[in-house]
Amino acid sequence: MYSIQSYKKEYLRQVETIAELQFGKGYISCDDWFDKDRIILVAVKDEKVLGFCIAVILEYKNLAHIELQSVLTDSPVGMIKSLAVQPGQIRKGVGAKLLEAILRLLVEKGVSQFYTEAWRDRKGTRIEKIVLKNNFTKLIEKEDYWYSDSLKRNYQCSVCGQPCRCNAVVYYRRE
Question: Which residue segments constitute the domains of the chain, with CATH numbers given?
Answer without folding.
Answer: 3-174 (3.40.630.30)
